[in-house]
Amino acid sequence: MRRCKKKMDYVCLQCRKTIDNNTLKKRIRCPFCGSKILLKKTTGIERKVKAL
């Protein structure tokens, strides 16, 4: 398992609390409610891509 050096934030789908990847050591679970469903937090940066 590779460890990501970038700061990545996750949001628990059940309790909606923000969790950083330093809190998630080996287990992918919310430390607050124990849920296994975590979503990556989006940055809100708009990206434009050229269509072919």
The number of distinct β-strands equals 3
Cα distance spanning the termini: 36 Å
The H/E string reads: EEE
Strand order of the largest sheet: 2-1-3
Which class do the helix and strand fractions yield? mainly beta
**Helix run count:** 0
Mind describing the biggest β-sheet?
A: 3 strands, antiparallel
The averaged pLDDT comes out at: 83
The amount of helix comes to under 10%
Shape summary: elongated
Strand content: 15-25%
Radius of gyration, rounded? 14 Å
How many domains, as an integer?
Answer: 1
Poorly predicted parts: none
Protein architecture, described:
This protein has one domain. The model has no long low-confidence stretch (mean pLDDT 83). Strand 1 and strand 2 form a beta hairpin. A 3-stranded antiparallel sheet has the order 2-1-3, with no helix packed on it. 0% of the residues lie in helices and 19% in strands. It is mainly β and 52 residues long. The termini are far apart.
Short description:
The protein is mainly β.
